[in-house]
Specification:
Elements: H1 3-6, H2 9-18, H3 27-34, H4 41-54, H5 61-73, H6 77-86, H7 93-105, H8 109-121, H9 128-140, H10 144-157, H11 163-175, H12 179-187, H13 194-207, H14 210-222, H15 229-236, H16 245-258, H17 264-276, H18 280-288, H19 295-307, H20 311-323, H21 330-343, H22 346-359, H23 365-377, H24 381-390, H25 396-408, H26 412-424, H27 431-444, H28 447-459, H29 467-479, H30 483-491, H31 499-511, H32 515-528, H33 533-545, H34 549-561
Amino acid sequence: MPNELSRCPVLTSVSRVHGMHGKLPFLGAAAAAANGAALPLSHAKQLHARLVVAAPVAAPADLRLLLLRSYAARGDLASAHRLLDDAPRPTSPLLYNALIRAHARRLDLHAALALFARMRRSATAPDAHTFACVLRACADCSRPDAAKVVHGVVSSCGASPHPIVASALVSGYARLGLVDDARQVFDGLRDPDLVLWNSMMSGYGYQGMWRDGLELFLAMRRSGQRPDGYSMVGLVSCFWNPEALSFGQAVHGVCVKGGYDSGHHVRSALVAMYLRCGCMESGHIFFGSLPDADLITWSSLITGLVQTGKYEESFGFFRQMCYSGRRPDNILISSVLSACASTAAICCTREVHCHAIRLGASADLRVSSSLVDAYAKCGFSELGYWVFHQMPNKNSVMYNTVISNLGSHGYAMKAIEVLDEMVKGGLRPDSATFSAVLSACCHVGLLDEGLKLFRRMGDEFHIVVKMEHYVYMVRLLATFGRLKEAYDLIQSMPIQPDCGVWGALLWGCCVHHDSILGKIVAEKLFEFYPDKAAYRVMLSNLYASQEMWWDAEEVRGELWKENVHKNTGISWVGEVRK
């Protein structure tokens, strides 16, 4: 064994458990793990078994961490949980952090938060990396409410000033679109470092707030901080529209003058900036001038074209990149699949799917989720359902996606079966899950099933009923003519009903020709939304269906008098690719 390996603490622990180096059949794998890689699952189980036999209580902490990370990386979270359960108390926070991070990577926020709560109840206090990991999970799952709760815990623990936690708070709030909250956290820091300045800059970049981004950049310079390449990426990312193009070009000049444009990440950000601002020619020229465009730059070009609706061009550059020998990553494949979904082009979806299978990327959660969505929006929900069933490890986001797609194509009973499968698999449905399944019931008219699911939300899963759930239930009741029940449901709502709820009931009144209740509902809508012409048109049509011509004419006259117009309906039919 080479001296450098024998000095590795992980290998020393492994050798101690096995008694001697020569009897370790997978020492090479352990050496790779010592450098940050994960053990193969079979090797991890062998080592775990030897650990239980040789040192069930006093096992080295670094060896437990190696095993837990290996289990988590290979998707065996049950074994990872058992390893954490068997660890001596107080448990190292590194073990909790590794398992929380594994759940976060699967976008299983419920499991990550449950583990975080268990950690707080135990003798192991969360550290800065714990808070950062949980905050990133909240941002990845688009849960601003959870992020604010975690922020409260951070504040009560006095961890807010820690650079790692502060950076996670700023970037997490920014990604969730809560830029004001991110700025409040940033302004509360006494002496932010360059990483925090960059995080706040990226926050403005997420929202395209280029004026705020420029002001922050100038404030950073005045504070004495010298920008780096990531500062320039954050600033360049702020420019999203043609009116900001001249400022973006000035920043490009600053990048050239300061030598920042030599970095691949800066060059790719500049390409994307020109495309976002509608300057396609400059974007293509700048991309073509790069002698060695890497994957990041290719991804910026293709993603920029997708974001600006240039789907055919994005497909062309994606093929060109693949022909050049560049291997796309999972994020780029997902972006191209979103373009396929936008064009409803099944041939492109199949082409990208086949390429993903050849690359071994089809098992990735992001790619699989994008495939399910693309197939459904192309009108082939059964192919999306097939992709869903091929996935070995499904998370709640995947279940929500397939339930929504099945419902939109009229397969409501199949959507309910998938919900039951989700619950049996140990995953907890959330608000989005019930929005999808209630929409499915509403789409095909499953009243009894919808009522049962509506009750299960609170009784079984303790989910707070939100506005969209009431919209679906009112629409479902109105479909079957149970307008009085729908009205009573609205009256019992603990929150102020919006136009979606009242509009669903007005639609039911129009379908079942109930002009008396329709007038009451319409007056509610006119009170809160006087500029919405569609509701006046609906009421006028309701009066006309009852041959109440004077009332219909009066409502139409109010439309002309107030100069309110209903938006004209439009249709879109995609090109047929031969």
